[in-house]
Each structure stands twice: as C-alpha cells, then as structure tokens.
Write a structure and sequence with these properties.
Length: 116
C-alpha cells in the first residue's frame, strides 16, 4: 500500500476547506489509489498541462470541485492542490499553482533518491 502526503501544508488546508461530503468522496478515492485501485470519482490525466502522472479527481455540479494528485513516483500518493471550480474551461490560476507544486514534488523525490 502506498503512503499519502499533502505536498505542502497549504494543500491540506485547501482540501479541508472543501465541503465535508466532497472531502469524504475524494478521501475515499485517494484511499483506493493508495491501494493501487481506480478512484470512484471521474478523473482526468493532466500529463500535458501539469506533468507526467498528474491526475485530477472531478466532482461536477454548481460549484464543481477538484483535487489533483500524483501516484506515479515511488511509494507515495502526493496531493498537490484542491479547489472549487467556478469557471467553465481551464482554471489557469489553479493549473499554475498545481504546476508549481508538481515541481516541489519532483525536488522532494530527487532529494529522497539522493539520500537513499
């Protein structure tokens, strides 16, 4: 089973600001992913817009909710960003935040590999 980690404290704070029902749904998805199973929610790969292994969990509605994770590297599922989607199309600010955190995750993985 893989470990789970929020890439930074702000990622955890964002996740905890989601409505309880959505938090539980995404938590169940992330738990399944840690067990190498498919998430229950709809999802979309973000290889081209964020990076290899980045996946967006999707809960549509008004408003819609998203959480973005990476499970491809090592034994950890990294949660990068969670947010309320209020626009149609791509939320540029959310994608910019996610890209920055993806780079942080890459650095963390490199440091880990360097030390072990």
């Amino acid at each position: 089973m893989k470990k789970f980690k929020f890439i930074i404290n702000q990622s955890k704070k964002e996740f905890l600001t989601l409505p309880d029902k959505i938090q539980k749904r995404f938590a169940n998805d992330l738990n399944a992913i840690c067990r190498n199973k498919e998430p229950f929610s709809k999802f979309k790969h973000l290889k081209d817009s964020v990076g290899i292994g980045a996946v967006e969990l999707i809960e549509n509605g008004r408003p819609a909710y998203r959480t973005i994770y990476v499970a491809k590297f090592g034994d950890t599922v990294f949660n990068l960003h969670s947010f309320t989607k209020t626009t149609n199309g791509v939320d540029r600010q959310a994608m910019d935040t996610t890209k920055k955190r993806y780079k942080l995750m890459q650095k963390e993985i490199q440091l880990y590999l360097y030390h072990y």
